Structure prediction request, 333 residues.
Amino acid sequence: MALSHVHNLLFVKHKRAPLDCIFFPMIEVVPSRIAAARATNACPTVSLTPQTVRAAFTKDSDLFTEMGVRYLDGLLDMEDEPLFRRQMFDMWEGVLGLSWEENERAIAAGRETLAEYDRTVRAAAREALDALERDNRLGILLLGRPYHHDPGLNHGIPEELQKLGYPVFSQSTLPIDDDLLERLFGEEVRAGVISHPLDISDVWKHSTAASSNLKIWAAKFAARHPNLVAVELSNFKCGHDAPIYATIEEIIDRSSTPYFGFKDIDENKPVGAIKLRLETIDYSLKRARESLLQRGRQTERVEKWLAGYEQRLRRQLGAELDADDSSSQGITL
Ligand code: SF4
Prediction:
């Protein structure tokens, strides 16, 4: 996919509006919110993809130089701030003639923009999740790697699910508001099972790969949220997914959350088969929603009964207190 995107930039976009640079860094360590993770490394194959792309476009002749486009594929560690600043400066100084102060300001502005994007998308996800809860509907939580957002790779599965009326949530931008995390994980934190709502050490000890860590945490989130259904996507006989398949399935199996997996979706599965799977998922989810509504009705009945019972108790208590009052008024000390 990366090759075709860079090919498109050089041979389509560059012709329409000339490019100066293609910035495709090798991101070795990615920022992560997962608590107590051992490391947050990107998959080494993904990290090195920019180099693979460079090799492909410079094999016979250097197409970047021939087309007047600089290709920036330096290494970045986004978790080590001082190192990150230095790496960015080394990469951009020669291109833009940057001073160190300008580099600092640019990085601060970039970080703020990224944080603002994160806040906006998570707020939208929270709104969508609240609407599901309010209307007793189901949504899909996509358990996949960042590249599964690429329509060239996901076979349009998220879009099709959305067309069927299920909002699709990404594991990278789930809402993490305190009240929501308290509702889903608070009890386990207080019981000492986990140290933080975003801790996965109870289910996964080898937490060194950022995307796998996030996928496992998202599976825990789906398992605890009654309006979410987990759909897992996996490609290329993924070496990072293979060891966590069983863990993910076990996390979900322990709840009543429906789970559907599309494994090895790159292996030329005919479109018809995927469509059929989606129809089956739709059917199962309609049944799951019926049970959700049924549970909602039962909860409503129990809540109504409890409210009536509380009122009766209060009335009874009030009457007893009144009786106590009147008898104590008759006592002379
Ligand atoms: S399929 Fe898995 S192992 Fe291969 S590049 Fe993607 S994340 Fe890495």
About this structure: The radius of gyration is 27 Å.
